[in-house]
Amino acid sequence: MVENTGGIEALLHEDRTFPPSEEFRKQANISDPNVYEEARRDPEAFWAKFAEELDWFKKWDKVLEWNPPFAKWFVGGKLNVSYNCLDRHLKSARKNKAAIIWEGEPGDWAVYTYRDLYREVCKFANGLKSLGVKKGDRVTIYLPMVPELPIAMLACARIGAPHSVVFGGFSAESLRDRINDSQSRVMITADGGYRRGNVVPLKQNADDSVTGETPVEHVVVVRRTGTADDKMMSGRDIWWHDLVADQPLTCEPEHMDSEDMLYMLYTSGTTGKPKGIVHTTGGYLTGTYATTKWVFDLKEDDVYWCTADIGWVTGHSYIVYGPLANGATSVMYEGSPDYPDRDRFWSIVEKYACTILYTAPTAIRTFMRWGEEYPAKHDMSSLRLLGSVGEPINPEAWVWYWQTIGGGRCPVVDTWWQTETGSILITPLPGITTLKPGSATHTFPGVEADVLDEAGNSVGPGGGGYLVLTKPWPAMLRNIYGDPERFKETYWSKYPNIYFAGDGAKIDEEGYYWLLGRVDDVINVAAHRVSTMEVESALVDNPKVAEAACIGRTDEIKGQAIVAFVTIKDNVTASDALIAELKQHVATKIGPICRPDDIYFAAELPKTRSGKIMRRLLRDVAEGRTLGDTTTLADPAVVQSLKEQYGDED
Ligand code: WTA
């Protein structure tokens, strides 16, 4: 039964503001507020200045070609992303600087200097070539958070083979869908990964994903847990260490066109089928490079830690490409924050003297619940800047983060962006922006956004509406892989030539953006995007289920929790065992992150006369609210009986 505690609601009103300290402002990479106006006047010149800080084999002829909704950035330019993340740093003392500091969950660790990383990337790139991978071939990567993951991505980038990283928490079936959609002939996986003291059986899932008809011809396996030594299929599987053993230590980087595909990354949309978001080379690198430098105020001696998994876009842009293009030291951690104890993150901050920490509100709320004694055990005075991403951060969590983790001295940058946007778009600049807890503040210079009503009018200060982006930006998605119609329909059809983000937002009297969550059928569970449709299809896939509808219920820790309303077939009896079975069914079918938190049995689902399920009413039931307007229901008794069964007293 749902309990409406109202706890966080009551604390939502935090109206303190936090201007940058004089000390921070003085040393910041950018502290001149005129930069906004300059970028607005000439956004192409603004972005080109960042692009010029990268290494190009051939300079572009034209900054932007915009045939809505198709954009081309740095047209005619040639470059290589792995060259920009590695080779160019070898020309200076940076070559012996730590590029990646990695810590495994069991406590093992490794440091890769830029020179080390370059060598390992070249060897693996040669290994991929020896398997017949060529420019343009897609490669699926299904790995835990081990150094081989960024190495594999950079190796793909080096030879011009777009990668498709699939989060290690996805099931065999989800992996299979993504492999088939991308038509990858090579997959890179590991025998297993460590999570909360257990081994995640990646090789088993990988094997299950390529049974029957499959495009996959080669599976490269990283030996991490020693749990699949007897499961290597001869002729198909090859150990990573065997593949790289005799490879040359250098590999010429492909000269890629600025608009060649760098990678695709699947994300959930409003239909059950995940979308392969396409990112290209020059614009993406420019966008991630620029935002990493300015938003995180990155300096030569920073130790930067983004706690995301590289299976999500945050890891792509802000563990791998942005930081490495900047020549930064990027920390990577394999496992769970509560293993062996709840102070693991803080022990990592102390051990490597991290200066910048970038994490998600769901993690922050979890740490709040665990209590201050865990961070208090560690010296975290090295920290100088904190970041947040993935979902709206409630002011209470913001202030706790600022005070308890940042010691009241570190600016908190709340960054809004999406898989589709490639780089951060709404964010403070820590040397300029006066922070307001709970607001992502302003667009990054050169980015134009707005909040529109249904008819496409700007709602103006105070009003709520749909967040849109009115001008192209360098790291924007170029397409949905193999499905330009869906690309147009999803993002560009609501308002002509304007990007529809799928988020609600408002702008306050001072021009600050406040993000209000998704406005479509996407649920944001612990900062992970889950499509209600995907969970519903997984449920009806179980032979006992007749129909299912899912909604996101507000959750104090995870932001949203998945609640499923299920109608079972006539000969099936509702029971706790069935609830457990259905939850497990979804976890197996899609992945554990999609496991519903609650399942409610419904004799019928509330529908409009045209047969559309009214999720809004289900949300009212799940959150124990008074029912909203029920006049369009075909049969109002349906939702009334659900409410009596599951809703709270009004
Ligand atoms: C949400 C993650 C509020 C939003 C980078 C967006 C946020 C979705 C924020 C994208 C934020 C991300 N404040 N909401 N700072 N950051 N979101 O594709 O709903 O995994 O549309 O990209 O997360 O999730 P995705």
Radius of gyration: 24 Å
Low-confidence stretches: 1-11
Tally of extended strands?
A: 30
According to CATH, what is the class of the largest domain?
A: Alpha Beta
The CATH topology annotation of the largest domain reads as Rossmann fold
Keyword list:
binds 5'-O-[(S)-ethoxy(hydroxy)phosphoryl]adenosine; alpha/beta; 8-stranded mixed β-sheet; 650 residues; 2 domains; 21 helices; GMP Synthetase, Chain A, domain 3
Describe the secondary-structure layout.
Blueprint: H1 7-10, H2 22-27, H3 34-41, H4 43-51, E1 62-67, E2 70-75, E3 78-79, H5 81-85, E4 98-103, E5 109-113, H6 114-130, E6 139-142, H7 148-159, E7 163-165, H8 172-182, E8 186-190, E9 193-195, E10 198-200, H9 202-209, E11 218-222, E12 237-239, H10 240-244, E13 256-257, E14 261-267, E15 275-280, H11 282-295, E16 303-306, H12 313-325, E17 329-333, H13 344-352, E18 356-359, H14 361-370, H15 373-376, E19 385-389, H16 395-405, E20 412-415, E21 449-452, E22 464-469, E23 479-480, H17 484-492, E24 499-507, E25 513-518, E26 522-525, E27 528-531, H18 532-540, E28 545-555, E29 559-568, H19 576-589, E30 598-601, H20 615-622, H21 636-646
Parallel strand pairs: 4-17, 6-7, 6-8, 7-14, 8-11, 11-12, 16-17, 16-18, 18-19, 19-20, 29-30
Antiparallel strand pairs: 1-2, 3-13, 4-5, 9-10, 14-15, 15-23, 21-22, 22-24, 24-25, 26-27, 28-29
The chain binds 5'-O-[(S)-ethoxy(hydroxy)phosphoryl]adenosine.
